[in-house]
């Protein structure tokens, strides 16, 4: 029998490992102790007379004994590290200098644990054989004796579908016994798996034999569910959740159950359950990517009277979908351990949303199974309880086009968003004042990009690599020849070739970058050791450097001067744990894509897009063939160009080679830009060989090729050392260069067109200005020449540009209205009587809804002093004399009695509920009456979304978190909490009504600071510079920070663009009006510009105003400061200065030269 042969082979190996371990841990120290006792006297005497007597060998023998003691101590230390780690099924930490001893200890421990764990299970097999757990992939649920499952489930169970299991590289290593115990609950059933795979050829070409060990990466065919005499009790109605990178139990409970405090229920339901990688959940703070967690029945803890979101009848009737055949079934959740008592719930969650620490149970070997067949968790509801909609993501109806972002990687998605942001920035810059950018009508595509992109990981990798280049240059050592990189949820890693010198210079890559970092080392300072990783990395394993998060990275402004060391990094895909794997094309040189023409095009296109948009490829040249001519026109970085056919690309490479050889005979040439060809067009064998010959001749140049393999008739075979990648498949494949399995990314045509539409819309011309925004002053290029000699020197501030370097708010504009705003403002001692009922006066303001007073809300006190004169601009006030009101903290909720929004037009008699809540989006999102703690920020985001975009439950769930959409229970809980927080009006009508039509929407009585801003700004524009400044100042004072916070949500893209434009126009209008007239107020103009730049520091129109203001003040140094500040911003954004700005600066410099 195969079982007998396999067990017979494992047992002697285990006994041998145990004997060796006993000999090393017990026998060796006994021998060393005996040798030490006998050699100590002669040895020490020989050491003391080493130079005066003839050596008898005693000193050498004593030194040899000391070496033996040291080696034994290192082995014991490694054993103490390996043993608990392998008992818990985890990778032991790497100890520096103990690699060989740790490897030996790990080999002995794993050999013992695998065999003896199997023996333990074998002895327990008879007891477990009566109640084995059925695989979770079978759709028919396990039922109690005597019960019959429903007909649809029975049909699903009888359907013959092939199931597979991929052997994982874990420690202890997996065996057929452990796999059978994991999947079927009984290791003795491994013979079923052995019989199903006997004689089959595995992925690496090895023929499967039951008596031979299995290897990681093998795909085993699983037999049908074995027949058993009894089945466990029915499992409660639960869902499963697959852990993603960066998840915590708190976040899972928050997303799936609507309350992070309920993480204890998930921990209790999954404690000690074996996972696919061999690990078990024993610590709520330690969950691994890929684990499948059982989610208890989600009963929202909020308002029980909240009506559930309208659901389709099929949502509750259909069973959970069965995973494809390639995926591994999760263990059945029918048997759950009781576990230790759940920790006490805390009243205030941790800021990081991590689960509070609980008492950790003693770890057990992953091969033992708790006998918990009769245990039922307390959180499971009774069978008679009303069924609750599962808190899982439903099928998207509106955004089906971009499900899971079509396999596009996070770097490509982040590059797309960066390009989109740049194009929208240029849209705002190149429009005329008063105009609006073209609207966005493809929000689903942008939301899909946000769901995948990880801007923080991109920036972290870029900063880490540039910091590495900086340290390498300072220490005078070459950069490591990296083959790729890995981006995980917590860090980034650099992958190095394991069989080469890790610090060898990569081909055709020069270390000298021309920066100041390349100077010689100071006297006495030695280069870094060649066996150590360069900062900021640490050497984890041979061939892998991990980022040391304790070391500081250079800031982005400093790294902008350091060329990226690896511009050829592109993402190939993700590994089974969700980590992103990148390959260095400049090291691999050739990447062959094996698949259908459509699959090759989809993968080649996403590689080209990522290479042309990533931050570390800013000094590279990318040539494409067969990907269309539209790409270069959509990308503003101008790194990409197309070639009509492969022959033209090869000719370009030949010219590059010829140019390099000609320069080799002359003076030293600067380092060559990396040249990358991405071809998706079919190629002939002869053309492929010609290209291979050219590549061989250009071995000293940083050249990389991405080509279709096309079998033996194409490029495959012309490049023997190429990396080959199967495309058009979602199955994991092993890439030897990276030493990992991965799933290849791709970008199908429909999704590419959806993303490209976003870029096309961002390049459309601006919409014509509409009333009253046609009154926004234009941006003339001509600079007004003023007679500075007629200006009183006392009127010119000593530091004219101090307004741009201070945090002082606009003066004399107060902060957001408070309870005192309804009182009569104090009159200035020198204030002249104001005209009765004049527009902008206190009396007129009292008649407006909300009792707005320009003197209190917009600095109208100074404005009214000039109303009786000839319409001149307000008298300039001293900066020191202006009051400095206390601004509210960012994100703080404003009082509920803030002024109400005024309807469009001048209709002061419109009824407005002064006590209605106000949604504030001109800064961090907040809602009056909702605290900025606990779930307050999420409720405020939900209120803002419903205010601008009332929608159906599925749409709301996706919009609130595109990366991890809210579950149904979470949405119901948040809606209930928001309804309770907003309350009702005086008539009892809810501000968040219960709409039976299935659309969540706020009451029309709910206010918004954005509408207050637009009304004040439009009213001020209509009045003109003589009386409208007060309204514009009041509108600008409403802006507390960047609209929607630092990172606007994807659904708010169109609103964010419009708000930024209107804030810039308002600040520009104020600056223009304040510096106009015979008595300009340059301080007020500066403050308006400063406020506008604090919201959008890329608004080039405001930099033009800044230069005009300082030119008018006669401060040429400040003009230069404004210009250089803009250049710094443009350099960071990788955009050029507009010709109008250059003309203004040139005019000022030429006139004052």
Verbal overview:
It contains 32 helices and 21 strands. The chain has 1153 residues and is an alpha/beta fold. Among the domains are: 2-119, no CATH class; 408-424 and 567-664 and 671-769, P-loop containing nucleotide triphosphate hydrolases (Rossmann fold), CATH 3.40.50; 782-1153, no CATH class. The strands form five sheets. An eight-stranded antiparallel sheet has the order 7-8-6-5-10-9-18-17. A six-stranded parallel sheet has the order 13-12-14-15-11-16, sandwiched between helices. It has a three-stranded mixed sheet with strand order 20-19-21. The termini are far apart.
List keywords for this structure.
eight-stranded antiparallel beta sheet; 1153 residues; alpha/beta; 38% helix; Rossmann fold; disordered N terminus; six-stranded parallel beta sheet
State the total count of DSSP E strands: 21
Strand order of the largest sheet: 7-8-6-5-10-9-18-17
Which regions have little confidence, pLDDT < 50, spanning 5+ residues?
Answer: 1-6, 117-160, 226-237, 299-406, 500-530, 785-910
How confident overall, as mean pLDDT?
Answer: 70
- CA-based gyration radius: 35 Å
Helical fraction equals 25-40%
Structural class by SSE content? alpha/beta
Shape: globular
Strand content: 5-15%
Tally of contiguous helical segments = 32
Main β-sheet: number of strands, strand sense, barrel status? 8 strands, antiparallel
């Amino acid at each position: 029998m195969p079982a007998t042969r396999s067990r017979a082979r494992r047992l002697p190996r285990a006994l041998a490992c145990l004997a060796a371990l006993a000999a090393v841990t017990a026998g060796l120290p006994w021998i060393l102790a005996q040798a030490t006792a006998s050699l100590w006297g002669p040895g020490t005497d020989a050491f003391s007379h080493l130079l005066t007597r003839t050596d008898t060998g005693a000193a050498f023998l004593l030194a040899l004994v000391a070496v033996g003691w040291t080696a034994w101590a290192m082995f014991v230390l490694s054993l103490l590290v390996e043993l608990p780690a392998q008992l818990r099924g985890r990778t032991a930490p790497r100890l520096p200098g103990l690699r060989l001893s740790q490897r030996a200890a790990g080999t002995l421990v794993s050999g013992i644990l695998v065999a003896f764990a199997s023996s333990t299970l074998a002895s327990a097999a008879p007891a477990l054989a009566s109640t084995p757990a059925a695989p979770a992939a079978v759709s028919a649920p396990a039922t109690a004796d005597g019960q019959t499952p429903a007909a649809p489930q029975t049909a699903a169970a009888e359907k013959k579908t092939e199931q597979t299991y991929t052997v994982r590289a874990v420690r202890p290593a997996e065996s057929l016994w452990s796999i059978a115990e994991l999947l079927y609950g009984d290791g003795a059933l491994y013979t079923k798996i052995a019989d199903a795979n006997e004689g089959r050829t595995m992925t690496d070409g090895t023929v499967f034999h039951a008596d031979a060990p299995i290897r990681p990466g093998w795909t085993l065919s699983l037999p049908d569910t074995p027949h058993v005499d009894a089945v466990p009790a029915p499992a409660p109605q639960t869902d499963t959740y697959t852990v993603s990178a960066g998840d915590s139990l708190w976040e899972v409970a928050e997303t799936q159950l609507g309350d992070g405090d309920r993480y204890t229920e998930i921990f209790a339901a999954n404690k000690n359950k074996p996972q696919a990688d061999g690990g078990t959940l024993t610590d709520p703070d330690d969950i691994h990517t890929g684990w499948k967690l059982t989610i208890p029945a989600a009963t929202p803890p909020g308002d029980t009277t909240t009506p559930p979101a309208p659901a389709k009848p099929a949502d509750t009737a259909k069973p959970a979908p069965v995973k494809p055949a390639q995926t591994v079934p999760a263990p059945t959740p029918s048997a759950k351990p009781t576990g230790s008592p759940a920790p006490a719930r805390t009243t205030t969650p941790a800021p990081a949303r991590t689960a509070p620490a609980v008492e950790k149970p003693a770890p057990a070997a992953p091969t033992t199974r708790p006998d918990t067949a009769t245990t039922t968790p307390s959180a499971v509801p009774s069978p008679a309880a009303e069924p609750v909609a599962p808190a899982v993501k439903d099928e998207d109806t509106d955004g089906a086009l971009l499900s899971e972002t079509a396999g596009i990687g996070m770097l490509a998605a982040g590059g797309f968003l960066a390009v989109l942001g740049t194009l929208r920035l240029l849209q705002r810059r190149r429009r005329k004042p008063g105009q609006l950018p073209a609207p966005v009508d493809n929000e689903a595509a942008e939301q899909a990009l946000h769901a995948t992109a990880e801007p923080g990981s991109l920036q972290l990798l870029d900063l880490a690599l540039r910091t590495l280049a900086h340290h390498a240059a300072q220490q005078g050592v070459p950069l490591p020849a990296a083959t790729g990189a890995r981006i995980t949820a917590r860090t980034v890693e650099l992958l190095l070739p394991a069989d080469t010198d890790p610090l060898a210079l990569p081909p055709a890559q020069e270390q000298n970058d021309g920066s100041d970092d390349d100077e010689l080392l100071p006297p006495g300072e030695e280069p870094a050791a060649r066996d150590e990783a360069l900062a900021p990395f640490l050497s984890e394993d041979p061939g892998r450097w991990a980022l040391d998060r304790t070391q500081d990275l250079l800031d982005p402004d400093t790294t902008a001067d350091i060329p990226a060391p690896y511009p050829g990094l592109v993402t190939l895909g993700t590994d089974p744990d969700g980590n992103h794997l990148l390959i260095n094309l400049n090291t691999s040189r050739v990447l062959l894509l094996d698949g259908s023409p459509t699959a090759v095009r989809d993968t080649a296109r996403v590689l080209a897009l990522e290479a042309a948009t990533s931050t570390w490829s800013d000094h590279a040249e990318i040539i494409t063939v067969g990907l269309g001519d539209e790409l270069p026109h959509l990308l503003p970085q101008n790194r990409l160009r197309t070639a009509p056919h492969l022959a033209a690309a090869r000719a370009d490479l030949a010219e590059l080679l010829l140019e390099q050889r000609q320069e080799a005979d002359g003076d030293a040439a600067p380092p060559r830009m990396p040249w990358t060809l991405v071809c998706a067009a079919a190629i002939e064998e002869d053309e492929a060989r010609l290209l291979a010959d050219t590549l061989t001749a250009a071995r000293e140049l940083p050249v990389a090729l991405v080509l279709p393999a096309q079998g033996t008739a194409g490029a495959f075979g012309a490049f023997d050392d190429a990396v080959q990648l199967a495309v058009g498949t979602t199955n994991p494949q092993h890439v030897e260069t990276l030493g990992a399995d991965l799933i290849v990314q791709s970008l199908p045509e429909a999704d590419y067109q959806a993303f490209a539409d976003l870029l096309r819309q961002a390049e459309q011309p601006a919409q014509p200005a509409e009333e009253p925004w046609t009154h926004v002053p234009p941006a003339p290029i001509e600079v007004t020449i003023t007679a500075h000699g007629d200006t009183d020197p006392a009127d010119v501030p000593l530091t004219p540009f101090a307004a741009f370097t201070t945090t002082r708010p606009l003066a004399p504009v107060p902060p957001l209205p408070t309870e005192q705003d309804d009182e009569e403002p104090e009159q200035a001692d020198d204030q002249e009587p104001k005209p009765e009922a004049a527009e902008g006066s206190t009396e007129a303001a009292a008649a407006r809804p909300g009792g707005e007073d320009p003197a209190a809300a917009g600095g109208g006190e100074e404005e009214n002093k000039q109303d009786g004169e000839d319409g001149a601009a307000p008298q300039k006030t001293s900066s020191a004399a202006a009051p400095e009101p206390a601004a509210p903290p960012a994100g703080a909720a404003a009082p509920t009695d803030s002024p109400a929004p005024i309807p469009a037009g001048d209709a002061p008699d419109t009824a407005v509920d002064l006590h209605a809540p106000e949604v504030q989006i001109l800064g961090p999102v907040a809602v009056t009456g909702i605290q900025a703690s606990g779930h307050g920020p999420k409720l405020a985001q939900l209120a803002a979304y419903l205010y601008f975009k009332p929608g159906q439950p599925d749409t709301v769930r996706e919009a609130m978190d595109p990366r991890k959409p809210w579950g149904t229970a979470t949405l119901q809980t948040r809606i209930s909490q928001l309804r309770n927080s907003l309350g009702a009006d005086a008539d009892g009508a809810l501000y968040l009504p219960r709409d039976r039509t299935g659309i969540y929407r706020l009451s029309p009585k709910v206010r918004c600071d954005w509408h207050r801003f637009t009304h004040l700004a439009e009213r001020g524009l209509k009045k003109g510079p003589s009386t409208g400044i007060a309204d514009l100042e009041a509108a600008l004072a409403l802006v507390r920070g960047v609209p929607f916070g630092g990172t606007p949500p994807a659904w708010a893209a169109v609103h964010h663009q419009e708000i930024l434009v209107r804030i810039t126009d308002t600040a520009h209008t104020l600056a223009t009006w304040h510096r106009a007239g015979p008595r300009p107020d340059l301080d007020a103009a500066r403050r308006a510009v400063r406020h506008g730049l604090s919201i959008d520091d890329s608004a080039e129109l405001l930099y033009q105003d800044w230069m005009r203001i300082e030119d008018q003040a006669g401060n040429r140094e400040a003009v230069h400061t404004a210009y250089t500040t803009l250049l710094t911003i443009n350099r960071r954004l990788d955009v050029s200065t507009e010709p109008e700005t250059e003309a203004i600066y040139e005019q000022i410099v030429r006139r004052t030269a």
